[in-house]
Structure formats: structure tokens, C-alpha cells
Write the C-alpha cells for this entry.
Amino acid sequence: MLQYDICPDIIFQRSALSETPVDMLVIAAHPDDAELSCGGVVAQMTAEGRRVAIVECTQGEMASRGNVELRRQEAVYAARILNLCERWNLHIPDGNIADSAMNVAKIVAALRYFRPNILLFPPEFDRHPDHESLHRLVRKAYFHSGLTKLEIIVFGKALEPYRPKRLFCYMQTYEFEPDFYVDVSAHFDTKLQAYFAHASQVYVPGAVQSRDEPQTFISSPEFLEFIKARARHFGGKIGVEYAEGLYSVEPLGFATLSALLR
Ligand SMILES: [Zn+2]
């Protein structure tokens, strides 16, 4: 029996009472990744009364802009905008999401604690190496989370083995052919508000940017246009205004085509 004692940093909790299991868990490398890549899907789910949590691995301390404390405040602000149940930070070093037994145990802790039906995580290929590393780490943790001989203790309690039912990858910088698109038109404004919550990292229209900090790939107005244009493009593909595309690790099936009659 392998045993790990994990004590995650809860940076946001909607109520003192833990609301687990959740319907959907988003695992991300950095504090702004979930909002930038799948904020529309998250906003839609919580607007429908679904319980959603975000777990980020690093505090983003290697970013060229902002600092750990500011990024934590921004993540809490975004959690309120998205109406999350809970948000964790796993304190894995930024720039080094290593394939270690402890890091696998930290992800397993999140899977067993939140017990999500749907798990969203980074794609296999992306511009930032942390995103690719986290894809592999989550795939490994997903398998290990179902093993009875791996004991994970979270907040002093041993958690039961669990594997999410659906494994979907969200889109970050590099584009892939999504397996399906989700109409997020009605929630795209909320996504943008959550995006703008990360003001130390991204361009916010009308806001004064610090001249002391370097411009980055995502701090330009062009990156915001890129995010909006992609969502509009994907929306056009399915005849709506804005959409986000997801990749399913396993084949998707329908019990009946009646599921498509809504
Ligand atoms: Zn990232």
C-alpha cells in the first residue's frame, strides 16, 4: 500500500460546507489557463446550477508579469465571477510540472476529493511545456486514481478510489480538431469578465497597463482578439455566435439519438 498525505491550498470556497462531488473539474497548469481556454463552458455549467471546481497546479511565479499574491487575488476574483464551488492551488513549481509520484498523488487527491463526472484538462500538444507535462500527469493520475492500493489522505481523511466518466481536453494556444463544440454564446461575456480578472497577465480594454512590466504573448490586445475570433469561428461552424471546442480522450457515444432532440 502506497500512502500520501496531501493538504491542498484552498484559495476559494463558495461556502464553508464542502460541496462535493462536483459535476465538472477543470485542472490547469497556471492560474489563468482555465478562464482563457474554457471559461465559456465553465460559465455555462455554473449558470445551469452545476457544481464546478478549478484546480491549478502552479502559482504562476515564473510569469513575466504580476506576482504570486496578485495572481492569487485575481484567481479568487475570477472564481467569484464564474461562481465556482471551490478553487485549489497545488503549489507545484511553475515551469517544472514534473512527472513525480508526489505530483501524481496531488492530482489524484483532487480527483478523489471532487469526484467529477467531467474532467477538463490541457491538450497533449501546446506552446507551453507545462501544459503538455500536465496532460501526461493527469492521464497518469486518472489511472492511478482508480487503484485501491494507492491511499490518498486529504485533510486527514482517506479518500475512496475514483475515475471521472469523461476526459475532455480544452484548447490553449495550439489548435486541434475538436471532437465537438459547445455553444457558449450566452456566457461569452462572463468568460471575458473572468479573463479580464487576470488583469496582471492580459490586456483589459480601457485599463492602464504598467509600463514597468514586459509585454508577453497574452498581454497584447491581439491575443484578446485571437481568443474572441476563435470562439466566433467555432461558433460559426455550428451556427451560433460563440463556441468552445473540446477533444475527448475516449470515443463519445450516445445511449440514444433522442439526446440530440433538445
Ligand atoms: Zn498556462
About this structure: The two ends are 47 Å apart (CA to CA). Residues 221-237 form the longest helix (17 residues). The mean pLDDT is 95.
